[in-house]
Amino acid sequence: MEIRGVPHFGAPRKSFLRLTKFGDSVRRNRLRVALGEFGAGISYAGTTMIRSELVQQLCTDFPDLTQREVEGVVSAIFDSITDQLAKGGRVELRGFGAFSTRQRDARVGRNPRTGEAVSVNAKRVPYFKPGKEMRERLNLHEGADL
Questions:
Q1: What is the C-alpha separation between 89 and 83, in angstroms, rounded?
Q2: What per-residue confidence (pLDDT) applies to 140?
Q3: Number of helices and strands in the chain (H, E)
Q4: Residue 107 phi, psi dihedral angles, 5° rounding
Q5: Among 83, 119, 131, 135, which residue's beta carbon has the most beta carbons within 10 A?
């Protein structure tokens, strides 16, 4: 059996993209993160913000609201978006972006450890398309020396 033109002999194979495009940089960066080379507790652009950090940031921005009220608002927004997507709908927030779902067809996948064929059922997956204002704001400093 062939996978994308590469003979498959039952043994797991390494990602072609990882080997050719990224090389050892992925392994080096994992090691640097593990050793703390990127710094602990320092905020970098592109880091992840979790839900509790979002709530804390909103509490700081709106000191007249309690943390419980902010948590309720954040939960209500996320629940509303999720409910609308579950119904097959779309949520559009002007300037921010649009949430929708995309249909994925059933397919035959591979267990990465054993290489065994596994059937994957059809499913709907969430999709986000950023709005024009968000794209412009994200690329505001593009071209400038950082």
A1: 9
A2: 85
A3: 5, 7
A4: -155, 170
A5: 131
Question: What is the layout of strands, in order, in the sheet containing 97-104?
Answer: 91-93, 97-104, 123-130
Tokens, residue 99:
């949430």
Cβ-Cβ contacts under 8 Å for 99 (sequence gap 6 or more): 81, 84, 85, 90, 91, 92, 126, 127, 128
Rounded CA separation 131/20 (Å):
33
pLDDT digits (tens, 9 = 90+) for 63-93: 999 999 999 999 999 999 999 999 999 999 9
DSSP 146: -
* pLDDT tens per residue, range 3-56: 454 444 444 444 444 444 444 444 444 444 444 444 444 444 568 999 999 999
User: Distance (Å, rounded) from C-alpha 52 to C-alpha 10?
Assistant: 44
Most distant CA atoms of the chain, gap in Å: 64
